[in-house]
Design brief:
The chain has 171 residues and is mainly β. The protein has a single domain, classed as Sandwich (Immunoglobulin-like). It contains 1 helix and 11 strands; from the N terminus they run H-E-E-E-E-E-E-E-E-E-E-E. The strands form 3 sheets. Strands 3, 6, 9, 10 and 11 form a 5-stranded mixed β-sheet that branches. The chain has a 4-stranded antiparallel β-sheet with strand order 1-2-4-8, with no helix packed on it. A two-stranded antiparallel sheet has the order 5-7. The protein is globular and about 45 Å long.
């Protein structure tokens, strides 16, 4: 009986953690939308893999956002997680970030008011940070996160946004 009860509690804890992860990263947060795109669908084994992440204001308000959109690991301290990529390799396992990134906290100039209809976009050379050494399909998404205000203390938009999912092929 203890084994059944233990298994149930482990399952319940796993289920609750999964639900909190799903709810903590939303596809669209109010009137901001995150879009991920690439310069190609198929890549040669040694070709650069260029990703484009766009944060667009689709609403009528003008939020103050962190436009720096610096790439970092999903495991980095919360205040330094701005853009993280989730890369699943051909076997379905997560491809870890292969570099250590040293970021400074955001400064006043990293923040901007994003007018209705406006967007900011950043480009990322993913091959510099992830291993794409196995041929096959890679499933990639991006997460934009901001938990910081500018040094002046003005309130900025805070939250998490999940991009669309893109599949690329490496030959």
């Amino acid at each position: 009986m203890r084994t059944v009860r233990s298994i149930f509690f482990v399952w319940l804890a796993s289920f609750m953690v999964s639900c909190s992860l799903i709810n903590s990263t939303r596809q669209n947060e109010g009137d901001l939308m995150l879009t991920l795109s690439f310069n190609a669908d198929d890549y040669a084994a040694d070709a650069p893999i260029q990703a484009f992440v766009q944060l667009q204001n689709t609403g009528s308000e003008s939020p103050l956002i962190n436009q720096r959109m610096a790439m970092n690991s999903p495991a980095a301290p919360k205040e330094l997680r701005e853009v993280a990529f989730i890369v699943l390799g051909p076997t379905g396992t997560e491809v870890p970030l292969g570099a250590r990134i040293n970021l400074r906290p955001p400064t006043e100039s990293d923040f901007t008011v994003l007018a209705p209809g406006a967007a900011v976009q950043r480009d990322y050379s993913l091959r510099e940070f992830y291993s794409f050494d196995q041929p096959g399909q890679y499933t990639i998404s991006a997460v934009y996160q901001n938990s910081s205000d500018p040094p002046s203390g003005v309130d900025s938009w805070k939250g998490d946004l999940q991009s669309n999912i893109v599949i690329i092929t490496v030959r």
